[in-house]
Input
Amino acid sequence: MIYLQLFLSFLQIGAFSFGGGYAAMPLIQSQVVDLHGWLTMQEFTDLITISQMTPGPIAVNSATFVGIQIAGPLGALVATLGCILPSCIFVTALAYIYMKYRKMSLLQGILGSLRPAVVSLIAIAGVTILISAVFTNGTVEFRTDNVSIRAIIWFIIAVILLRKKKMDPILVMVLCGVFETVCTLVMKWI
Output
């Protein structure tokens, strides 16, 4: 039964993840955290972090991670297959349709209307991750025991390095990880 649940959950994620991995995050959270309770919100945030650091699409990495966590290697295979199957079918069909009807204004209108929806999905995912990173209990409550000052500092530093200095995102992630490790070790020694 768990294999069917994994397959169907990630089939839905794969089928409705228009706009790539960031747009899929709210869908993954809905299935994995809210609906099935396979992961906590903290584990979900860790999942997104791990999915960002590993090669491949976020949704596929998430499917593999959740599948192996819930049902072992076969669960990983089933969840990953559920996640990629809709894309294989959709892309094949859309490539045919697009090549045949790409000059039609109706098709261009549909593509144009999907762009704002995809941007909103990405924004929701970013805000959700930001909240879970900055607020320790996952809710926006400005209490000293609930706000991670170091997370805010790393966020600001990362934004500056990415936007102003145009640094490589992988290097920024590594630097933030190294700095956090050093800070944690220094705090233990103090």
User: Anything to note?
Assistant: The chain has two domains: 2-137, 148-190. DSSP finds seven helices and no strands in the chain. The first helix runs from residue 2 to 16.
